[in-house]
Amino acid sequence: MAAPMLRWCCSGRRFAFARVGCGSCHRRGPPTGSTSNGKRGQSSVAQQPHITAQKPRKGEPEWAAVVGLEIHAQIASNSKLFSGSQVCFAAPPNSLVSFFDASLPGTLPVLNRRCVEAAVMTGLALDCHINRKSLFDRKHYFYADLPAGYQITQQRLPIAVNGSLAYSVYVGRKPSQMVTRTVRVKQIQLEQDSGKSLHDDLRSQTLIDLNRAEGQLRVDANISVHRPGEPLGIRTEVKNLNSARFLAKAIDYEIQRQINELENGGEILNETRSFDFKLGCTVPMRDKEGKQDYRFMPEPNLPPLLLYDSGSLPSGADPQQVINIDQLRERLPELPRVTRQRLVQQYGMLPEHSCVLLNEVGLLEFFQNVIKETRAEPKKVTSWVLNTFLGFLKQQNLAVSESPVTPSALAELLDLLDRKAISAPAAKQVFEELWRNEGKTPAQIVAEKKLELLQDPEALEQLCRSTLEAHPDVVMDLKRGNPRAINKLIGLVRKATLGRADPTAIKEVLERQLSS
What we know:
By secondary structure, the chain is α+β, with helices and mostly antiparallel strands. It is built from 14 helices and 17 strands. Residues 18-54 have low confidence and may be disordered. GO terms for molecular function: ATP binding; glutaminyl-tRNA synthase (glutamine-hydrolyzing) activity.
């Protein structure tokens, strides 16, 4: 109970769909096993009219979907939101429960400063308006994992409102086919987390753990479909999705389920569903036809939460007793959108490359460390990190932190390549040796394998001349207009030098000798 949770609501996002096939899933009753808040939902609109399928207008998508998300995120704090009990994942059941968590009469909530700061920083990161005054409310309902009979939340005046989040998404198969979308954030609120209900179907028992519900992320998705240009459809709510992967699967399945239901002459019910990750489908939990009255009322034991900025801070105020929004803004790390813009402007990389660097854990730090230690151009570093380095990681299913190649080793290799001490094919060979993690430096590998480039221009001139004289047929083929013949000559020269000649330098010498 009273674990620190942030809850924010994302406004409905519209998507256009053409009809595709959808599998079916049949199951009786709710899913078994451990659930959190397994029998509670948000209030709904009673007796909404049913929607049936209509024919689409010419040139329009067949269906449009609207998805709204209600996100419950755990705050990284050492104690709970309204009590001093410790927050510890996987602690023994009911071992971290204070008198307030157990709702003993006479106990009062004490607001956790760290949780307020986290909520403000989240609001700033999502471009929200931070309310200088926010209120706490009681949301009443009766369930075993809520011994007080009410949940402390922020329904009327939350801590932050009207935000947005810009994100990049691929609209085609090519990496360059990337666009930026924006999702609106309706509000962010501090909310007391409930306990956890453990349902044992074999013994017909429900056990309660008042430590907290656990789970760093839980999402409720509200989903509806409609024909473009027609009123919004009746929505269903899919509860307690605990990962981004399950969230995507549940939304995809529910959209297609509703489309199939309407096209087959059925009706969409305003109901709550859960996602069965084993079967990959949503199943009914309870209907929401009857509107639930939560009887929201002001929380009498918590005063209004007042926030300040540097301009409105009372003179002589104790900094430990107030929350300064401007100070929290200064503590914000560089946000992802700012980092992407900086990478594009500072290093001249493509926007899609900046997204890859941020999406792979640890890859941006690896890239920046290589940049610090090498004289190679940033574009060359970007190419090696995203293509060669990341490709090897993907092949062996390794994280960046598990890589046998360090940033300093890759930087040294790129310096050798930049000084034209080795060729590009030789650099790939050196990288493969580094990946074997035998404790050798790039310079040592180059010396052992004799991969250094031929540095004598006169020797290269003589080798190219000898190659042209020894292969008049290839020269004649080139003069007849076959562009591939030059590549064959380059290969012959490299073979004669055991791969120690730079292909670019060879091509320049050959073209000069052929034109003379």
